[in-house]
Each structure stands twice: as C-alpha cells, then as structure tokens.
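Trying the structure run again after the queue cleared.
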Amino acid sequence: MATIELDQSLRLQDPAASFVAVPPVAPVSIAYRHLADMVDRTCERYAHQHAFTAVLPNGMFGNLSFVQLQRDADRFAVFLREELGLAPGDRVALQLPNSLAYPICAFGVLKAGCVLVNTNPLYTPAEMVHQFNDSGARALVIVDLFGDKIAPVLEQTGIEHVILVRLTDRFPRLPGFVAYNVIKYWNRLIPACSAPTIGFGAALARGGHLLHERRVQVADYTATTSLDDLAVLQYTGGTTGVSKGAMLSHGNLLANMVQIEDRVAGNVTHGKECALAVLPLYHIFAFTANLLYFFHAGARNILVANPRPLSNLQRAIENYPISWIPGVNTLFNGLLNEEWFADYPPPKLRGSIAGGTALHSSVAERWQQVTGTAVIEGYGLTESSPVVTLNPLDASRPGSIGPALAGTEVRLLNDHGEPAAPGEPGELAVRSPQVMQGYWQRPAETAKALKDGWLLTGDIAAIDDDGYLRIVDRKKDLIIVSGFNVYPNEVEDCIAGCPGVAEVAVIGLPDAKSGEQVKAYVVAKAGAGLTAEQVRAHCKQYLAPYKVPKAVELRAELPKSAVGKVLRRELRAEAARTAGEGEVVHG
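Done. Tokens:
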C-alpha cells in the first residue's frame, strides 16, 4: 500500500531567506492507495450513518447513508465503464449543484478510474464549450435545470454521452415526486431539453444490472491507479487569462485531506460532526473540505443547492445539528445580518473555516460574539488542492491565515524572484505534496507558475517570527499611489468596520497625478442612511492619507463569484467603461 510521508520537521532557515520557522510536528502519512480506496474504507467504517443530506428551501430533504453512497457510486462506475465504454483516464464533466447526485457521481467517476472535471452549472454554453474541449471530456453529467444548454454544446464538443440529473434524485419516492413537480410545474425552473440524454436513475439501474450480470469487481477498475495518477481537472476562475485546468492527483488531494486532519485534530470528533455544505462542491474549497475531509471524518454533510437568498439556509441550519461551517467572508457577514440567524445561531456549532478571500476582522469579531465560536481563517488556491495554511482553532490569530500545514514549505520572494528582506512582504511561494502537477496541456503556463518545484501564488504575504502568515494582497491588485503601496485588503478591512457598511470592495484606478487612486465600492446595510462622505471620514481616522479612498461609490450589490467571492476584476473592467452609478464622493 502506497504511503505519503508529510514531514513537518522543517529546518530553521536563514532568516534572510524568509522561510517559515515552525515547531516540529510528527510526520503525517496517508495509508490509502488512491481516492477510491479512501471512499470504500470510509463507507465501510461508518456504513449506516448519514453521509449526505440534501435540504430544499421548503424543508423537504433526502438522505444518503455511507453504505448507500458506496452502492450507488459502484453502480455509476460500472455504468461509465461497461455501458458507456469509458477507459481509465477518460474525463467526465460534472455540472451539478450540491445534491445527493454529486457525491455519487464524483466518487463513481474516481472508482471507474476516470478523471473528474468539475464544471460550474452557471457556465454559459461558450464557457462549457471551452472547458469540455480543453479537457477532452467524453461524458457530461448535468442538472436538468440547465438542460437547454446541452444541444448547442454537443455540436461543438467531443461530448459523447449526457446523463441528466434531477435536483431531487435519490430523495424518498413520494417527497421526491412532490418536490420535483413543484420545481418543474409551479416554479417552472426546468427547461425543455432537446438533446439525447439518459436519466440519472436509469444510469444507476443499468449499472446495477451490469454489476451483477457481468460479475464485475469494481476495485479492478483502479487496480493499477497510483497516488501520482490524475484524479481531478479543477479549472481556475480565469482571473489571469483563459481558464486553465489544474491537474490534481490522487496524492495531491489525499495529502491535503490528511494535512487538514492534522491541523484540526482534537477539535473534530470522527463520526459525530455535522458540516454545512453551502459552498458548491464543484469549487475546490468545498470539494476538499466537505466532500473529502468531512466525509472522511464520518461527518454528515448538509447540502444546500442554492444559498441565495440566505433565507434558503434557514431550514438547514435550524433543523440539523450543524457543528462546522466552511465558508467565505461574504457568507459569514450575510448570515450575521439575517435576523433569524443572529437571534438563534446554531447551538451545536464548534467552529467555522473561512477561505476564498480575506476574512474581515469586524466579521470575525461579530461572529465570535453572536455564535460564541471562532471562525478560523485559512489560505489556499486551486493549484494547491487548495489549503496551504490554516489557523489552529485554539490558537487562531486575528488577521492571520495561520501557519503552513504539515509538510508545507513557504517562502516570500521580492520582485526579482529572490528571498525578500527580513520583515518585508513578498510573493508567497509554496512547495508541498498538495501542489498540482501542472496545468492541463499548457506547459508554458505551468512553467510560469511552477519554478523549481515552488508554486508562485501571486499573493503578497508577510510572516511573523513564529510562522503565522498574513496575506497583504494579490500581486496584481496592489495599488501604487505616488510610489506608496496600498493593499486593498487593508482598506477593505477598515471600511468594513464603519457603522452601516454591509459589504465593500476596493480597487485602484489610473490617476494623472499620483499614478493610481483608491476607489471603494460600498453596499450599505438596509436603513443605515450611510453616505459616501461618512465612509471617507471613517477611513481618515484609521488610514494614512494616501490610503484613504479618493472615490467612494454606494451601490446596491457587488459582483460575486459562485462561492460569494467579490470580483474586483469586474469592478475594474466596469470602471474602465463607465463612471458607474450611485452616490460618489471624490476627495
């Protein structure tokens, strides 16, 4: 059985090299051959406990036990290999929201020895065409809510087979029937689909028949699979150009799963936790945190297909003993502004994990006050499976992303690619077993991102003497005002503490006098009566003059990604086209 040793006994480097100095930690090992092995052994360990529960906004739900998940994943794997004729290494695209079908399909793809291609269900046909052609996907699993996109996509890609999933698949028969018809006929959310497809239920039934008819041993599909084999093509958000597929191996993902376990050990009780899966499982954060780590820990994952509006989460949070919530800053901030949540926070909550974007200190403080529990901030990116650093729950440091995980080396580099001077911020570089193999079929892009085994993150970080890191900002988001560096995160954190502010985003704009100027986009809390001048006045109390936004724009909402991450690039693009709308004050 293959084993990965994650040795955290990193030697203390010369301080000038800006390496992290961390106390020695016992080596961590992975005793799984591959992800399918982990799935089987976890399902056998927790057998009849609930693995996943999908909850609709009206409270209707469906459950999937570990043993049911194992059975259905086996059937799906057999369907892919025996019915569709897929071969080891063939790519299968999953375009699904959080639902009971997602873990079945994801684990079924891995059990079949195929490669999973996570796809955002909200993608346009043009985005689907790019990703399917780039990955070379042969099969697509897609939710029927977007079935009208399939036909035009099939004409332009190599997709040979389409499996159509209902949001209520694997629900109990009667509740599933009622919920599906409400979605289809009352809400009218299911469009006509003219493309040839096979239903998910039919696919499982056919796989089950073939499993027994041909006496297939599902384990044979992965008999030669190793930790170095490709498991997932996880496409980046395209923030630095054309969307690219990060090649994540079985070893990359299992390593990160074990590293997370090492960091939260003592705070998570295996077989007893209940984790809220509000972030989409197709996103790398939820994929590793919920689908892999909390699943492996025997937790019950509560799946929410659509968290918008946030009232969609009320039934899930009130009806289940939620003990962990992985999320992003906007989710935690939004929940705090929901009266039902603030008045009755989850009584069983033990901790929350923030990633994806910077956690504002004001949000972290209020979350502690309202829930009585900490939200610990971590840091990661798609290319690192994704977690690189994470605060310990019992030693979390406000404003920090925590120390590096077990077996993870980090260093800070200056603009010349050399170690940053002691005490100076620099670009964060990472070398660890969770770092991707490269970008799919893009050697030039891979060479830019990976230098001598080090992943260049593009994020500017600073490091404390004891190894705790702070993200100062994205390298490309850095604002230079009259030669002075202004980090948007710092300005956003300041504005987030201004009374009446619900959300904020800060960008840099060209300025004839200073090179660049700081502009803030602010969403006010309902009824706050907030003005742009009040925001500037607040900043003047806490920020140096060159950091104070020269322009403040009040608006109803900010552009966000599927996981609620504010998209600064869209604000920059918008600013380049127009002066914007709303109340603007120029200083």
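Residues 1-26 have pLDDT under 50 and may be disordered. Worth checking whether this holds up in the mutant runs.
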